[in-house]
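User:
Can I borrow your eye for a moment on a structure tokenisation matter? Would you put together a sequence-and-structure record for a protein of your own picking? Please set it down just below, with no commentary around it:
AI:
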Amino acid sequence: VKSEGPKLVPFFKATCVYFVLWLPTSSPSWFSALIKCLPIFCLWVFLLAHGFSFLGARSSARKILAGLIFSALGDAFLIWQEQGYFVHGLLMFAITHILYSSAFGMKPTNVRAGLVITAASALCYLLLYPYLSGPFTYLVAVYTALIGFMGWRAIAGLQLANDLWTWTKLSACLGAVLFMVSDLTIAVNKFCFPVPHSRAIIMATYYAAQMLIALSAVECQDVEVSRKRT
């Protein structure tokens, strides 16, 4: 973990810049979009700092990098969500969750975790359903299924009982959970009722989630290093 810390310094600085400037969402601009996306750009740099050979040899790292690219596009679209670009942002993040799910893989299956996440996702959608109308009735259902699937695949990899875990798997798990918290807050605030301090909750959990998921991409590098040492 210590070896990755210095590479994340630009991300922490960019996140501080976002919260210090705290640009109003009522007046969207390309500058506010840049400030919002800057921490995600820094996570691109974090992964690229491990080298193109690392990315070329690890498909999971490439998929997470691609997910971060689509996330930045989604962030930009959501800056102009009141101008009709909310669905565009939703689509970008849906693609992000598909990429993250693929990066986390389908093994181990962990049916119990899948059932828990399915139940939680279904409950969240049932709570949102009375407030949804038109295309959002279906779009939110699909999106909920995709982020729930991503959460399942991240959580499934963490097998604490069998000691088959690494700090990067824990990172992926926590990142996925925080991502779900962030998106649930968005949905409740947009469709149901105003959530106090919603923007701070959404962005704090979102940036933390993306950082943790980006950290999970370096797992195979750590495994390779440990193999060489043994």
